[in-house]
Design a protein that fits this description.
The chain has 384 residues and is an alpha/beta fold. The chain has helices spanning 19-30, 41-61, 74-88, 102-110, 131-137, 160-170, 191-194, 243-281, 308-317, 327-330, 336-340, 345-348, 362-383, and strands at residues 7-8, 68-71, 93-97, 117-121, 142-148, 175-179, 198-202, 213-217, 286-287, 298-302, 320-321, 351-355. Bound molecules: pyridoxal-5'-phosphate.
Length: 384
């Protein structure tokens, strides 16, 4: 398959499925279509594929295969952790970071109706969460602490292992959940190394199919299930397993984990090229996030005085696809992440996110660097 004729720089929203993954998915849609609960050979082979996918995921994350619960994506994994650990826990208090994904923030909010209170921990200007601040928000009745490993809008990486140690000391009975959706495949991720009780992952951010992800649990940890039914996924996620999606996700995960070191170095060079190119050619551009501690695949840039949405649409006419923030905000108004980082509302409206994936090339970055400056000047002049 030929590469699409555009500079797709919106990989934090979603990625193109890797052809090696798509091939596997197709095989399990068209040939190996058995239900893993069936006892005939097609079912037995589907069950084996499911077991192997679980083992692959476990290997990629230094987890136990029994701890891998396949879900419909990152949102469900975050919900299973936040709602499930809260309902199974001893207290009625939650702690979350201010820049969490809505899958965590809205799940915590929904628990308000069940009598839970949530403390939201602020971040600094770079979007960084301090371990002491998270621990300081913990109480004796804290049931769940949820933080993200890498932010989806500015790319900032949280010191999760340090946060885990601080949370264990402050609230030993709390479950510590880490949303690793944007971190996995960009930096090494291990459930052991980050000291988490659970990790949320999503396949479509790593060149796998959409609609599949996982909650990876540390040994002995069990949230309450959200779905009730046939008892699949160790009784934690009833419903016939999405075998083609799961097999594709596992293939995508092993490709992502294998390539992380070489890809990260390449992405860093692309990110530097883009940052330098934008800074040199677009006067006044401000780069957001924490340049020292970030995933190499995300660059958030504010173009003062330029309406970000207009810039985005002009860029798309030149074949450069980016976003104004998270895909889930682009239709809902302002970014809570940029506001939490202390950006004024006007700056939030003038911000674009560029994000890379496996298929991003230097030519894509150069295309963006060439297209942005004249549009910025034009739109600035119009806005005056
Ligand atoms: N968490 C983070 C940090 C994300 O970026 C996303 C997706 O944008 C999700 C969770 C939700 O994942 P999914 O799209 O698989 O539901």
């Amino acid at each position: 398959m030929n590469a699409p004729p555009l500079a797709y720089l919106d990989n934090a929203a979603t990625t193109r499925c890797d052809p090696r993954v798509a091939e596997e998915v197709e095989r399990f849609l068209l040939e190996e279509y058995g239900n893993p609960s069936s006892v005939h050979p097609l079912g037995v082979r589907a069950a084996r594929a499911l077991r192997e996918a679980r083992e692959t995921l476990a290997r990629c994350l230094e987890a136990e295969p029994a701890g891998v619960v396949f879900t419909s994506g990152g949102t469900e994994a975050d919900n299973l952790a936040v709602l499930g650990f809260a309902r199974a826990g001893h207290g009625r208090h939650l702690v979350v970071g201010a820049t969490e994904h809505p899958a965590v923030l809205e799940a915590a909010k929904a628990l308000g109706a069940e009598g839970f209170e949530t403390s939201v921990v602020p971040v600094d200007r770079g979007g960084r969460l301090e371990a002491a601040a998270v621990a300081g928000a913990c109480r004796p009745d804290t049931a769940v602490v949820a933080v993200m490993m890498a932010n989806n809008e500015v790319g900032t990486i949280a010191p999760v292992a340090e946060i885990a140690r601080a949370v264990r000391a402050a609230a030993p009975r709390a479950a510590f959940h880490v949303d690793a959706v944007q971190a996995f495949g960009k930096v090494p991720v291990s459930i052991r190394a980050c000291g988490a009780d659970s990790l949320a992952l999503s396949s479509h951010k790593i060149h796998g199919p959409k609609g599949v992800g996982a909650l990876v649990l540390a040994p002995g940890r069990r949230p309450s299930p959200l779905f009730h039914g046939g008892g699949q996924e160790g009784n934690l996620r009833s419903g016939t397993e999405n075998v083609p999606g799961i097999v594709g996700f596992a293939r995508a995960a092993s490709l992502a984990a294998e390539g992380v070191a070489t890809e990260a170095a390449r992405w860093r060079r692309l990110r530097e090229r883009l940052a330098r190119g934008l800074a040199e050619s677009s006067p006044g551009v401000v780069l957001n996030g924490d340049a020292e501690r970030c995933v190499p695949t995300i660059l958030s840039a504010t173009f003062p005085g330029v309406p970000g949405e207009a810039l985005l649409h002009h860029l798309e006419t030149r074949g450069v696809f980016v976003s104004t923030g998270a895909a889930c905000h682009s239709k809902r108004g302002g970014s809570h992440v940029l506001l939490a980082c202390g950006l004024p509302e006007e700056a939030v409206r003038s911000t674009l996110r560029f994000s890379f994936g496996r298929f991003t090339t230097e030519a894509d970055v150069d295309r963006a660097v060439e297209a942005v400056p004249p549009l910025v000047s034009e739109l600035r002049a119009l806005a005056r």
